[in-house]
Design a protein that fits this description.
single chain; about 220 residues; alpha/beta; seven-stranded mixed beta sheet
């Protein structure tokens, strides 16, 4: 949980200091486009932070969809609540919990595993101390139904200039990202139809694929 501690108090300023506008907004939009429209879907946003995914997820799921947003940081969740209140959204449930204990958080949201259509996790899996329980939760959901898993996370930059490599590597370190964690590979090992993309010279990796249930004929 050491990587998560740095997010404990920064909810009010996170959107401004995270370089979202300049670096991460475009890959985030691309990830949402890879999910595609899913009217009336139930979507779990793991590590939702301040709610940067909310508007896009609501567009995908429509007003009849449901979004269950989970984060470990009370300050980030406070910012997420403010975002929801300002927009007047009524189909978003916000729960305090973390990726390392995802199943109990889903239970607190009164959410059946067989109801989950999408699990999205953006820039969070690589900062948890142990991501094995997140994948256990994914596997549990998969035993109930075929669901879409969508990930955005940080990877080692490979095809960019040396100065940019230094900058993005520093940003990853400041964010608490574990370079050894490569969740896109974990998803690829579980999904028959995974799509993996590299952005910003490899600094951001996206992965989307179905897990669980029978493969389509």
């Amino acid at each position: 949980m050491a990587g998560l501690r740095r997010y404990r108090y920064i909810g009010r300023v996170y959107d401004a200091v995270s370089m979202e506008r300049f670096l991460y907004a475009a890959p985030r939009r691309r990830l949402l486009s890879l999910i595609g429209a899913m009217p009336e879907a139930t979507i779990v946003d793991v590590g939702c932070g301040t709610g940067l995914n909310f508007a896009g997820l609501r567009q995908l799921a429509g007003p009849a969809g449901r979004i269950v947003a989970i984060d470990a940081s009370s300050s980030m969740l406070a910012a997420a609540h403010r975002r929801v209140d300002r927009a007047g959204w009524t189909n978003i449930t916000i729960i305090q919990g973390d990726a390392e204990n995802l199943l109990p958080a889903l239970q607190r949201a009164d959410l059946l595993l067989g109801d989950i259509d999408v699990i999205i996790a953006t820039f969070v899996i690589s900062i948890v101390g142990d991501d094995a329980s997140f994948w256990d939760a994914v596997d549990n959901v998969g035993r109930h139904r075929r669901s879409l898993i969508a990930l955005a996370d940080l990877g080692p930059p490979t095809s960019t200039g040396w100065l940019r490599r230094i900058v993005v590597s520093a940003l990853a370190a400041l964010g608490g990202s574990r370079r050894s964690c490569q969740p896109w590979k974990e998803l690829a090992a579980r999904s028959h139809d995974v799509i993996v993309e590299a952005h910003l010279g490899g600094h951001v990796r996206l992965a989307v694929g179905h897990c669980g249930g029978p493969a389509p004929g």
